[in-house]
Design brief:
It is built from ten helices and 14 strands. By secondary structure, the chain is α/β, with parallel strands linked by helices. The longest helix has 14 residues, at 103-116. The structure holds adenosine-5'-triphosphate (ATP). Residues 12, 15, 17, 35, 37-43, 186 line the site of adenosine-5'-triphosphate.
Length: 300
């Protein structure tokens, strides 16, 4: 499985929702499409699901146009809609028939699928009685019905309460073992839990495409965090005059010393401290923001 999104642009009147967006997803990846409200996530996802047409650009799945490969894609919309008077089993049976699946096949597969999404015991309950998390898990079952190679999900957990969110995240952890996943969210911590790669979108543009490690390394501050005894605070005033020290900030119980070159200047700084008889209780080289801070820095 290889999904290639090539230079997709989509405009709604004057508004460019997706702007020259390209990316590739390979088999077994779980990719988070991250962006604030209105960034263009739903528009892009609907173009991949072949629900919306792009104005420019093309999407290929295994080298073939996406429109001819729809049976390889499972799509979970942002707000899945079910008939409240149908049971979970009837819902999947109805959806499966609409997608052209055989009745016999459905009779066999639906109980297995409901079991997989944790709704085995609720198979014959009306969907109207389901919680948000249960409905979302039913939506995931529906998207998996035809055994797609790629699952695309639009904000699968954003609208759920903490319990529903946990249920769905746990389910996604299971599904990603056997299915390639692209999911959109504006909540980075959700994506962080299950995705290995993060593609950030802002005003329709791709602004970042990296693994967690790459993101952390790329956004690592050139600073050293030190904790010293109160008696040694005088040492800090001497640092102001060093050519490689850019700035000193007080930070919690210690100090953040910003330097020009982390690798070389950290050694110089520790040597300077030792020569000045400073006792370090903490000396941490390279301060990494967490992903949430990186996200805010990039998108706001
Ligand atoms: N059918 C439409 N007609 C006009 N403008 C639209 C339409 N659909 C989306 N837009 C606009 O395109 C931009 C991108 O919207 P989109 O829904 O793709 O963003 P999003 O990242 O999914 O946001 P959210 O997290 O709020 O769902 C927004 O400015 C939105 O108002």
């Amino acid at each position: 499985m290889r999904l290639e999104i090539k230079n997709i642009t989509k405009k709604f009147k004057q508004k460019t929702a997706v702007n020259d967006f390209s990316m590739v997803i390979d088999a077994n990846e779980c990719v988070g499409l991250i962006g604030p409200n209105g960034a263009g996530k739903s528009t892009l996802i609907q173009i991949i699901a072949d629900i919306l047409n792009a104005d420019n650009g093309e999407i290929f799945l295994d080298g073939k146009k996406i429109s001819s490969m729809k049976n390889q894609i499972g799509y979970l919309p942002q707000y899945p809609n079910f008939f409240s008077w149908m049971t979970a089993f009837e819902t999947l049976s109805f959806m499966g028939t609409l997608s052209g699946l055989e009745k016999n096949e459905l009779q066999k597969e639906i109980p297995l699928l409901l079991e997989k999404v944790g709704l085995g015991k609720e198979a014959h309950l009306h969907v109207g009685t389901f919680s948000g998390g249960m409905k979302q898990r039913l939506g995931i079952a529906q998207a998996l019905l035809h055994k797609p190679a790629l699952m695309i999900m639009d904000e699968p957990v954003s609208a759920l309460d903490p319990i529903g969110r946990r249920e769905v995240l746990n389910l996604l952890k299971e599904i990603k073992k056997e299915t390639t996943i692209l999911l959109s969210t504006h909540i980075l911590s959700d994506a962080e839990e299950i995705c290995e790669r993060f593609v950030m979108i802002k005003n329709g543009h791709k602004i970042e495409d990296a693994t967690k490690l790459e993101l952390l390394e790329r956004h690592q501050e050139s600073a050293i965090f030190v904790m010293i005894r109160k008696a040694d605070f005088q040492w800090l005033t001497m640092l102001d005059h060093l050519p490689y020290v850019k700035k000193i900030e007080s930070c919690g119980n210690g100090f953040k010393i910003h330097v020009k070159n982390l690798e070389t200047d950290a050694n110089c700084l520790i040597q300077h401290g030792l020569d000045s008889k400073v006792m370090f209780t903490k000396f941490e080289v390279g301060i990494q923001d967490n992903l949430e801070e990186i996200f805010l820095e990039l998108v706001v």
